Each structure stands twice: as structure tokens, then as C-alpha cells.
Amino acid sequence: MKIYEKAPAKINLMLDVLHKRADGFHEVEMIMTMVDLADRLELSGLPRDSIIISSQAGYIPLDEKNLAFQAARLIKDRYNVKSGVHIHLDKRIPVAAGLAGGSSDAAATLRGLNRLWGLGLPAEELQVLGAELGSDVPFCVTGGTALATGRGELLTPLANPPQCWVVLAKPPINVSTAEVYGRVRSNQISVHPSAQRMREVIEAGSFAGVCENLGNVLEDVTLRLHPEVQQLKEAMVKLGADGVLMSGSGPTVFGLVSKQSKVARIYNGLRGFCNEVYAVRSLT
Ligand SMILES: C[C@@](CO)(OP(=O)(O)O)[C@H](O)COP(=O)(O)OP(=O)(O)OC[C@H]1O[C@@H](n2ccc(N)nc2=O)[C@H](O)[C@@H]1O
Ligand SMILES: Nc1ncnc2c1ncn2[C@@H]1O[C@H](COP(=O)(O)OP(=O)(O)O)[C@@H](O)[C@H]1O
Asked: Could you report the predicted ipTM of this complex, rounded to two decimals?
């Protein structure tokens, strides 16, 4: 039997860091939504007790470091499943980009194995398991649009923002999420983006309001380490994107665009800056 799952990328419409916790994680307030750029997973049941990961992408680990492997092992151990699985990952989301590609693969693995092995677990249970794998995994289990608090695992579902185009550009640099959080000084953040305000404009269906209230306090850290991310933001604004922000810890920058007629110009203009540019729809 084969099961297919789509694992979409997320963007952070706002991300605020409140303080560092005793466990080393940071207390955050984020509003996340999914975009139509997704990895594809094919899960095939194996009679023997093993987990095999394969992928067309040569640049991700295929062993126990892969988040899909970790998700499969976790659900298998927790529910005492004796059979195995082969998971093929068709990677389309850029890796280590601030788009939660690995987290979304882990979440899709939990959903897929729940079906393949007939476990009948509710989404909330998959989210609790997901939190053991990473802070963004619980959101990726259900997707949509949500306010995420705690270290990112406490979720309040929200309405989707008005549909728009999302142009994503990933510069060829590596950013470590742990390093970016490690450099945040929460008492030195001058402007905190407002989750409350973003919720209001989403509820009002205001695209202009969403663009005006984009904000991510991790930008300051990543932009200081990599000034080319700032240049990319400026290029996107100049090319006519309605709202521009770095996603998560970066380095991907996204631009929200309401008019399809503007998308090609922005996409083509950015291709001069970096190879990895995508023009997709927001997911509703
Ligand atoms: C920044 C965000 C925004 O959505 O996304 P990405 O840029 O990774 O996509 C997330 O908070 C990332 O979530 P995720 O990538 O799942 O992080 P985890 O694996 O849980 O943690 C990686 C490391 O980041 C730090 N970390 C993560 C989350 C958090 N609330 N506080 C932290 O300090 C910790 O040092 C942790 O060891
Ligand atoms: N299935 C996977 N897809 C992508 N990266 C993965 C996966 N499993 C493990 N990784 C590792 O996780 C790290 C973060 O990848 P990713 O989830 O794409 O980034 P981000 O959290 O910035 O969105 C990378 O260093 C990558 O090697």
C-alpha cells in the first residue's frame, strides 16, 4: 500500500521574541501561514521492521538525522508498530531556508503513517508528537494559518489572510536557527510587531493591513550577519512587492503581491540576485 502526502512550506507573517526561557528556548509570538510550495512524500509499507528514506535531493541527510526518519521512528516506537516504511521525499522546498521544509516533512510523515498504519490518532495527538521533533512541527501538522506561542507549539487557528501571490527568494547563504536565536537580546528589541494587530487585519480581510503589519524581530540578527538579505529586501520593494519580510530565521525573503500582473516583473528582477526564486499562491 502507498500513501501520498504534500508537505507545504510556511512563512511567518509576524514573529516576536518575548524572552529566553530557563530551558534555553525562546518564548515567541508568531503568525504563520502556508504557501503553495510543497515537498511530496510517498510512503510505502514494508513488511520488515525498518525505516528507509530516499530522495532525489542530494543535499539532505537520509539517515536518522532526517526529520522524516525521526518522525517515523517516534510514531513507530510510541505505538509499538512492528512493520516498517519506505519514505521517498521529492524535495521542492529550499533547505535551511526559514520555510520549515524539514518540519513539514516530519508533520507529513506523522499524518501519512497515521493513515498507513491505521492508528486513528487525532490531529492534536500528532501535534503533541510533533513537538518532540521541533518547535514548528505542530503547526505543520494542521497547517492553515495560526498564532503560535510558547516555543511555537501552542496554536490558535486563525482565518486565512486574503489570497495573494507570494514571491520567495533564497540567497545562497546558510543561516543556523540556533545561532540566530542565540544572538537575540529580547530586552534590546526596539519595535515589537503586534500579533493582536495582525489578527485584526486578517479577520478584517485587509491585504493592505497584512502588508503594513509584517514584522520579524529575527531580521535584525540575520541582516547584521548577512547584509545581502537586506539588499534582497530592498530589491523586492523596488520591484513593486506590496509587503516584504524575511521568513523565520531566514535567509529567505518573501514578498506579498496582490496583482498577478506584477509577479513576473518581480520574479525576473530577483533572478538577477539569486538562483532560488519561486512565485506561488498563498494557501487558503
Ligand atoms: C525560527 C522559526 C520560526 O518559525 O523557524 P525557521 O527559521 O527554523 O524555519 C522557528 O521558531 C524555529 O523552529 P524549528 O526550526 O522547529 O526549531 P527547533 O528545531 O525547535 O529548535 C532549533 C533551535 O532554535 C532555538 N529555538 C527554537 C525555537 C524557539 N522558540 N526558541 C529557540 O531558542 C533553540 O536553540 C533550538 O535548539
Ligand atoms: N526532510 C528534511 N528536509 C530538509 N532538511 C532536513 C530534513 N531532515 C533534516 N534536515 C536538516 O534540517 C536542517 C534545517 O532544514 P529545514 O527544515 O529545511 O530548515 P528551516 O528550519 O530553516 O526551515 C538542515 O540542516 C537539514 O540538513
From this structure: 0.98
